[in-house]
Write a structure and sequence with these properties.
Helix content is 59%, strand content 0%. It is built from four helices and no strands. The termini are far apart. It has a domain of 81 residues. It is an all-alpha fold. α2 packs antiparallel against α3 and α3 runs antiparallel to α4.
Length: 157
């Protein structure tokens, strides 16, 4: 081995001796894929094929609609009582709305906003109350129920 010290402080100096070259390195050994990885991949592929074949030959489920239950029938008295109760609930909400809108805010903008907000709250709470009353009275005729639902949809918007 050469024990001389090379001066490389100025690499542009033509009299400077270059450092010795790197020794040639050995190429890294070739890596082979692990044999167990190929075996696991093959097992997963076979399992997927088996599941696909099993799903292909599986019988299809019965997609028949469930039998439709006949609509309950109500007596004339039950229909009349239900209509009376729903109409009474409507009258109650209507009176609340009339009382709410009868107020006047005057010239105060805050009072005007308060009256308007109160009217909206009456409409919101009243529509929820009427929907609840309609759901509690299944004997209400389909015609009356449809008219009330249309009215309630307009008040909610």
């Amino acid at each position: 081995m050469n024990d001389t010290i090379h001066d490389v402080s100025n690499p542009l100096d033509p009299s400077a001796v270059p450092p010795p070259p790197w020794p040639p390195g050995m190429p890294p050994p070739p890596k082979r894929p692990a044999p167990w990885l190929a075996l696991i991949s093959l097992m997963v592929a076979l399992l997927a094929i088996c599941l696909a074949i099993g799903a292909w030959f599986r019988p299809s489920p019965d997609n028949k609609p469930p039998p439709v239950a006949s609509a309950p029938s109500y007596t004339d008295q039950q229909v009349a009582d239900a209509k009376t109760k729903v109409c009474a609930a409507y009258d109650k909400v209507h009176r609340a709305l009339v009382l709410s809108s009868a107020r006047n805010g005057g010239n105060d903008p805050n009072a005007i906003l308060g009256v308007a907000t109160s009217g909206r709250q009456v409409l919101d709470a009243g529509s929820r109350y009427l929907i609840t009353k309609l759901s509690e009275e299944p004997a209400t005729s389909v015609n009356s129920r449809g008219q009330f639902e249309i009215l309630l949809m307009h008040t909610k918007n």
